[in-house]
Amino acid sequence: MNRIFGTSSSKKPKPTLQDAIASTDARVGSIEVKIRKLDGELARYKEQMSKLRNGPGKDAVQQRALRTLKQKRMYEAQLSQLTQQTFNMESTALATENLRNTMATVDAMKRFLCDWPPELDALALEEEEESTSYLADLNKAPDFIDEPPVEVSEHARETPEAIKTTG
């Protein structure tokens, strides 16, 4: 097929996550400008409505103000959605960066273990033997003396005779 139709000579690189974040931020900026513009229009309509008497002129201005307010709410909803989308992309970028850092740390630890000096091997073996002998000593320690459990009645605080052993 490529012989007949050929291939495209310029292949654009795929957009990265940072490119997508920048693009979304640019759209957020343009929507914020539109919202500010609509705020100005709403303030102007409010001023006009305060000067007019009740009647068809005021009703027309009120209808335009309501349409403008609906537009503003739509833009605010889009702004909220884009802000959430940007947050999600930034969280993903952070998680990806943390994963890369973790992989680099693991690689460094593997390289260190490959270059582990033999002297440290002997030291680690001695520490292991010491901890093993310590655990063995703990296992040989006598168990606690088996005594019957002590039951305390409600009057134990008042009289020492209230404490009795159960058997």
Automatic annotation (TrEMBL):
GO BP terms in the entry: late endosome to vacuole transport via multivesicular body sorting pathway; vesicle budding from membrane
Key words, A-Z: Coiled coil
Transmembrane regions: none
Region ranges (Disordered): 1-21, 137-167
Coiled-coil annotated spans: 28-55
Cellular component, GO annotation: multivesicular body
Bias (Basic and acidic residues): 152-161
Comp. bias regions, Polar residues: 1-10
Similarity annotation: Belongs to the SNF7 family.
Protein name per Swiss-Prot or TrEMBL: Charged multivesicular body protein 5
